[in-house]
Structures are given as structure tokens and as C-alpha cells.
Amino acid sequence: MNVTAGQFAIMAGISLLSGILFSWLVSFRIRANRRFFIVTSVMPFIVGLVITFVSGNIGAGVAFGGAFALTRFRSAQGTADEIAAVLISAGSGVAFGMGYVAYGALSLLVLGLAFLALSSVKLFDHASLKQERLLNVTIPESLDFTGIFDDTFNRYLSSVESVGVKTTGMGSMFRLSYRIRMKNPAEEKEMIDELRTRNGNLEISLLPYSESMAQL
Asked: Are residues 164 and 147 in the same domain?
């Protein structure tokens, strides 16, 4: 596909502007750092650039695939919102690269507004999910943690599920993670104080539950 300088300039300008507008729209709902929004802003142009110069050229496609395979990504697992934003940015870049500049810009604008609108709808919120917490309890390696907190959990929790055991402190301690639901949220301090008497006053954290946090 032959691309003139004017066509390339139009693609670059519109993809960058629409990418910045999309990142600005989703920033009202996604809590992320500045680097994430910079990446989502320039991704439509980057993907469009690759599609533009690789399209129809088998050798360039193979070379790009090999270079991409050598790249190793080391980043924390993103939330569902962040993954969706990245996929939208990348998907619109395909439209830009294939010459459908108006469709690419329109898709970013429409999906950005849809993302913003759907995030504001309370229909998808479930009160029971908001009550679930992630409890992390650090214990020394010498302590047998099997059933050690059962009596405390029975007293304060309406439900509890073990979601992981991880070594920490160079293997000298264990971190136990539980998915819990309090009988009475006002008794959080009493429960934590009781757990501290069992784990030797080591670190305890009680956080809103999410699958990504449970895997850290």
C-alpha cells in the first residue's frame, strides 16, 4: 500500500489527537498513573504506524514479529478497566493503519463516551461484593497456621475463604490471604487486635477485595 506524506500526516495527527481525547475521557473513571495515559494516548498512532508500513510486505511483517518476540514485558497485572482501555486504543490503531482514519477516530470517541457512561451506571454494582474484603495476615515460619484462626473467624466473619499462602521476609515468614465478609463491619478493630495476639504482632492488612490484589 502506497502512502503519501500527506496521508501519513493526516493519519498521525488524527490518531494522536483522538488517542489523547480517549485517554482524557477514560481518566475520569480509571485510577492509573501518568504513564498509563501516555501509553493509551500514543498507542493508536503506534499500531497505525506498524500496520501502515507492514501491510502487504511479508518480509517486514516477519521482521517486526521477530523483534516483537524478543521484547519482554515486566509490568504488574492491570485492572479490567486498564486492559479494556489498552485494547480499545490498539484496535483503533488498526483502523488508522488501514486508512480508515474517520472510523478510527469515531471508534475512539464513541467507545470512550460509552466507557464513561457505563462506568457511571449503578446497575452493575452488587452490594454483596462491596462487603468482601481481603485479609492478609503475616505469621512466623515456625507457626503452624492450619486452623489457627478458626475460632476468631467464626466469631467475627459470616464467610471466609483461603485464597493463598506466600512466603515473605526471605522465607522467614508466611503471608496468609483470606477472602472474608464481616458479620459486623464495626468489629474490624476487635478482630485485628485478636489476630495480633496470634501472629506475634506482625503485619495485618484488611483491604477491599479484588482478584488482582489477591494474586500479588
From this structure: yes
